[in-house]
Design brief:
heterodimer; A: 371 residues; alpha/beta; Rossmann fold; 3 domains; 7-stranded mixed sheet; B: 493 residues; Alpha-Beta Plaits; 3-stranded antiparallel sheet; 11 strands
Chain lengths: 371, 493
């Protein structure tokens, strides 16, 4: 099932939705296995498994009392977690899960002006919902029992002032990474050449950084976002389209600098959140990350620096003089190592190297300029 | 009142020809020198009689106009001499500072003092209507703290008169804006007052002339005024500078563990429901839940017109007496929750300038390596304003960026409020932050056992339907407090 979806994504962009045969079959198999009735309208069916919940049409109805029942069940499931996950691998505790539950309701229930679910025990009024009740039970069970990330459950991540669609196989953008866009904002503020230049987001995933920067540059500049994964690129394409940035953000498939051979020495800025976790740490990661997020977006080799070092080398040749870069790292150790590497091994290519902490106080980003 | 007569009469075709005396009176000020002025301020909308009946030389506002008109005159090189100045000054002065009267010298104050019996609206008695409206105007002025406004206007005018005012354009802009808005506020009341006196004049005139049509028309107009005046009384309760703002409501649980945390969340729920009744937009900004139930503290944002004006009546400590559901021995408990209200000053208000370098922004509950290591939907942010130590937290938004923006807005409002408290002592009771509120400052008591009663300790207003109050039916309490606090002090009129 998941395979065929991935395949569908792989072959083309979202234009594939208009080809009915493949998706009609898909839809049938899904409906039969999960939920025999009621079949949603055929047009909406192909979107069902990749559209984030909040963008789906409210094709289902459920009585408030039933939703209430589900909500109570979900709450008690969340409460039963206590601090178990937190103690185990720094996972979410009950209060965080309860907040996620609130957001799930926000994304699923059509009418947000309804009285809250906690008070609707006896209310038989029907409300429009974007997934069936059975699906709701299944989704929340996945969240708690399989530790499936909340963002994959609802199909989106709120990041900066954006709502980005994400799905299994694509890294969920992290709150720390929001800062990269601010860093770019700071340097383009009084630098016209950078503001109107060409920016590159390497390993864009859902397109978060590229879209964040693209929103800021708008008509002034241009962003090229690359990724090795066709799935990530198609999700990024969808997000770019949703923010109407097709003219600003261009997507290219390939590994790091490979798709940028035509741009040597022409790029104004490079930004990237490459995989940086040392391979040996992968098995100890929080269950949401370890079990569900793509390893290819996390594993940075033995010391976690493989890709970062590769980016440094490439940056020297792709950036034009005066060009800016900002890379996210695993923390203080990698930041220092990277700065040291750039000052010595990478020749005399960079200047104004700087280490910037995230809001948790961890040395997170390395920034600098091409001489 | 000649002007009004003239106006009415003009409207009623050419009746005014019958009163040449009034007409000459009227035309008098329209001498050649002031033609430019009369174009700008059409005579028929002025009360020029005031020019003859009153001397405004000591009015605060007139000084300002003297100054400003001179300024205008000199800057446009269109000097039309002292008479222009004085007329213009008088005209403006009469709009605010003067006490309007009828042609036989009846003023609102005198009507109130006469103590005419106020009958039911259905009784078609002009004295009764007039007395009711006059009483409303009296109350409105008291609520607006009219005398204080006059003093304030005087101060602002003096400020505007300073020759070096525009050396500091920011300050000058602020002064002239404040002056303008104060003028606007006072003009409205004056216009209402004048309208009342005009109608009285009309009625008297109509009686003299046996004009039944005019009399019934004027009577109708008075009745209409009487109805409107009730609304105006209500509006006047919210005449504070920040009253139209949106606001934050903060609730903090007192000592007493789970029982008082539960009470704090009941209080918060009460405000959420109250806000919904009033069609305000309610957003939870920050919430620190209790371990077992309830909240330790929480902040909600209440978006909508006059949210602060109403909610400020809720500042203080709220006390609950009930059999605690958390006590297995079913004993009676008393718990407390403190409520603070912070106005959100919109555009056009002066905000405290915040330097980026004075801020420390931190992830609220960080732990572990972060970054790619962690998948979390928790992106709570705490902002500390280092010079003051004031902090703001937000955790209910779905992205860190939004949490930060939200926390910044709270911080801005807290700093603004602190600045206001520093500057304006007279409004001190509403500018308390949670930390300033002492637990002895009880404003309301909610007893659910052994009897059921919610009683406001400031006004003695009480309601026995405790459920309705806890479901947000607070307007009775709010209105009674607002009117009591505004109407108590006779000197404020």
């Amino acid at each position: 099932m998941k395979l065929s979806l991935t395949y569908a994504f792989g072959v083309s962009n979202f234009t594939v939705f208009v080809k009915p045969p493949l998706f009609r079959n898909l839809h049938h198999s899904v409906c039969l296995s999960l939920k025999p009735t009621p079949p949603p309208p055929a047009a909406a069916a192909p979107l069902k498994h990749r559209m984030p919940l909040f963008l789906r049409p409210p094709t289902y109805t459920a009585p408030m009392s039933e939703l209430h029942k589900w909500h109570e069940w979900a709450k008690s499931l969340a409460s039963s977690v206590g601090t178990t996950f937190e103690d185990l691998d720094n996972g979410p505790d009950s209060s965080l899960l309860c907040r996620e539950l609130k957001w799930l309701v926000e994304d699923v229930v059509e009418d947000q002006t309804l009285p809250s679910l906690t008070q609707s025990e006896k209310c038989e009024r029907n409300v429009g919902v974007r997934v069936s009740l059975e699906e709701l039970y299944k989704l929340w069970k996945e969240r708690i029992e399989d530790r499936r990330p909340f963002q994959y459950i609802v199909g989106c991540e709120h990041w900066r002032d954006l709502v980005l669609c994400v799905q299994d196989g694509v890294l969920i953008p992290r709150p720390e990474t929001e800062r990269i866009v601010d860093l770019v904002g700071d340097v383009v503020l009084d630098n016209e050449e950078l503001r109107e230049g060409l920016w590159v987001d390497l390993g864009t995933g859902s397109g978060a950084i590229a879209i964040g920067v693209g929103m800021m540059l708008k008509s002034w500049g241009r962003v090229i976002a690359t990724d090795l994964s066709p799935l990530a690129l198609s999700v990024a394409a969808f997000n770019v389209q949703r923010y109407d940035l097709q003219d600003v953000v261009e997507l290219r498939q390939g590994s790091w600098f490979e798709p940028l051979k035509d741009l040597e020495g022409k790029v104004a800025g490079i930004i990237s959140n490459p995989p940086y976790i040392p391979s040996e740490n992968i098995s100890g990661l929080q269950a949401e990350v370890r079990r569900h997020e793509p390893r290819i977006a996390l594993d940075g080799g033995v010391h976690g620096m493989d890709d970062l070092l590769h980016l440094c080398k490439g940056a020297a040749s792709v950036l034009k003089s005066g060009g800016f870069f900002a890379f996210e790292t695993n923390g203080e150790k990698q930041c220092k190592h990277l700065v040291e590497y750039m000052e010595t091994a990478a020749g005399d290519s960079f200047c104004n190297l700087n280490i910037v902490p995230d809001f948790a106080g961890i040395q997170r980003f390395v920034t600098g300029f091409r001489k | 009142m000649a002007s009004s007569l003239l106006r009415k009469r003009t409207r009623r075709n050419n009746l005014w020809f019958l009163h040449p005396r009034t007409l000459t009176q009227h035309l008098l000020p329209s001498s050649p020198e002031s033609q430019s002025q009369s174009q700008k301020f059409p005579l028929f909308q002025n009360p020029p009689n005031s020019i003859q009946n009153h001397d405004f030389s000591d009015s605060a506002f007139s000084k300002f106009l003297l100054k400003s008109s001179k300024h205008v005159a000199s800057s446009t090189a269109n000097v039309s001499g002292r008479r222009f100045d004085s007329q213009r000054r008088r005209f403006f002065g009469s709009q605010t500072a003067a006490e309007p009267s009828t042609s036989d010298g009846l003023t609102v104050e005198r009507i109130v003092a006469n103590g005419w019996t106020i009958l039911d609206e259905s009784e078609n008695d002009w004295k009764s209507h007039a007395a009711a409206v006059a009483q409303s105007i009296h109350l409105i002025k008291k609520r607006m703290k009219w005398k204080k406004l006059l003093v304030l206007l005087d101060m602002l005018t003096m400020e505007l008169n300073k020759p070096d005012l525009w050396n500091d354009p920011v300050h000058a802009g602020k002064v002239s804006r404040e002056h303008g808005s104060l003028m606007g506020k006072m003009k409205g009341v004056n216009a209402f007052e004048r309208e009342l006196l005009e109608h009285i004049d009309m009625i008297k005139l109509a009686r003299e002339e046996n004009d039944a049509e005019l009399e019934s028309e004027s009577l109708k107009a008075l009745l209409q005024m009487r109805r409107i005046s009730k609304e105006k009384e209500l509006e006047a309760m919210l005449s504070g500078e920040n009253d139209p703002c949106s606001c934050y409501i903060e609730v903090q649980a007192g000592a007493g563990g789970t029982e008082s945390m539960d009470w704090a969340s009941m209080v918060m729920e009460m405000y959420k429901l109250w806000g919904q009744h009033r069609h305000y937009k309610i957003t939870v900004v920050d919430e620190m839940p209790g371990e077992i139930a309830g909240i330790k503290r929480a902040t909600i944002k209440v978006d909508g017109e006059y949210a602060y004006g109403y909610a400020k009546a809720e500042v203080g400590v709220h006390r609950l007496v009930r059999i605690s559901p958390f006590d297995s021995n079913k004993r009676r408990h008393t718990s407390f929750a403190a409520v603070a209200v912070i106005p959100i000053l919109g555009e056009g208000y002066t905000h405290v300038q915040i330097n980026e370098s004075d801020l420390r922004i931190e992830r609220f509950r960080s732990g572990g390596a972060g970054g790619q290591h962690a998948n979390t939907t928790d992106s709570a942010v705490r902002i500390v304003h280092i010079p003051t130590g004031i902090t703001a937290t937000c955790q209910n938004e779905r992205s860190q960026h939004q949490n930060k923006a939200s926390a910044m807005a709270v911080l801005q409002s807290r700093l603004d409020q602190r600045e206001m408290a520093r500057q304006v002592q007279m409004n001190a009771q509403h500018t308390q932050s949670l930390t300033d509120i002492t637990w002895g400052n009880q404003i309301r008591s909610y007893v659910l056992h052994p009897y059921r009663m919610v009683k406001d300790l400031r006004t003695n207003y009480e309601v026995s339907d405790t459920d309705s109050v806890l479901e947000g039916d607070l307007d009775g309490f709010i209105m009674s407090y607002l009117s009591a606090s505004l109407d108590k002090d006779e000197d404020d009129r």
